[in-house]
Amino acid sequence: MFGIVTPMTYRHNITAFLLVLLLALFFAGCALNGAASASSKKAQKDIMATQAELADLSVYQAINRGEKLYRAEKYKQAVPFYERALELKPKNSHAHYRIAQCYLALGDKAKVIKHYRVLEHLDYSLALKIAAGMP
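User: That's the sequence. What structure does it adopt?
Assistant: Structure tokens below.
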């Protein structure tokens, strides 16, 4: 039982340990992948649902949905909500400001400048904040 540890026994123990570790990592990865794919499918369903109901949103509702996505750093998904708010109320400075921030994060300078120019006339302090964030 407490015999002499030979090099062969030592190698066997290490091999067994590595095999158990490998299996544990494999099953952990499978569990994470299943959870990630389930959340990914839910996110895609949410985005598709939002596109279908986008036309029914008020300015307030569109900005609120855009804000949630913006705070979650989902800038591309937030843009249509701010665009919807601007369709309903073209002079909404907050919507112009947030959509400019989204485009800034996405690297679309032309669209940032477009909304910056509108903001210059609506709310100069917000326009300055956008200008400060541009490279």
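The chain is about 85% helix and 0% strand.
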